[in-house]
Amino acid sequence: MTRASETVRRRVEDEIRYGALRPGDTIDERSLAERFEVSRTPAREALIQLAASGLVELRPRHGAVITRVGVTEAIAMMETLVALEGEAASLAARRMSAAETEQLAMIHTESRDSVRAMDNKAYIDANTRFHEAIYQGARNAYLADLIRNTRRRMAFYHASSLNQRARVERSWEEHGTVVKAIAAGDPDAAEAAMRDHILFGGRVYADLVAALQRPEGGPAGDKT
């Protein structure tokens, strides 16, 4: 992948993550090339990479569509993420250095401003830094890649769930519980705290997926 195509891929991922692109929206190489001021070749390569990661579905002669996630698939991804994130927190409690633990606590403390301001984009970024610090401390690159790949598929829905003040405030408090367990070097408590954090967020996430797929005036449906 060229530098230009990597830049396009990352920027499209960010637009999905922040909600500028929604599931079902269409994009094509011509519009991407014009918008990001690149040739159509890197735009095409970016779409292929996005499709490989499951973020878009390629449609012949119609560019690509931002992937929709069905309720059953959403639940499956959340169940997987609970296990993976819990293991990462457990490993971090055993392997993080004192300096890394201090950095994790600092990230958590600094993110409080975005919670007070209800700055969705800032909190999404802070949340990413928080979890990335834990993956780094876990010292397991394969596990980290599995988590990142799963989170990419959930990016839009996760960001949308953080538009709710109550969820953002609770998320921040849950992060604090995780920090305390990791700082105490308690793998079991760290895993339990992280699993609880992901499980609660998962319920909000699954409800959001169902709501976005519900026909107007009708019951929720499963479109996997």
UniProtKB/TrEMBL annotation:
Q: Which organism is it from?
A: Acuticoccus sediminis
- Name it: GntR family transcriptional regulator
Could you tell me which PANTHER family the record lists for this protein? TRANSCRIPTIONAL REGULATOR, GNTR FAMILY (PTHR43537), TRANSCRIPTIONAL REGULATORY PROTEIN (PTHR43537:SF49)
SUPFAM superfamilies reported in the protein's UniProt record: GntR ligand-binding domain-like, Winged helix' DNA-binding domain
Q: Which InterPro entries match?
A: GntR_C, TF_FadR/GntR_C, Tscrpt_reg_HTH_GntR, WH-like_DNA-bd_sf, WH_DNA-bd_sf
Keywords, A to Z? DNA-binding, Transcription, Transcription regulation
Q: Which residues form the HTH gntR-type domain?
A: 2-69
Q: Which CDD domains match?
A: WHTH_GntR
One GO molecular function term?
A: DNA binding
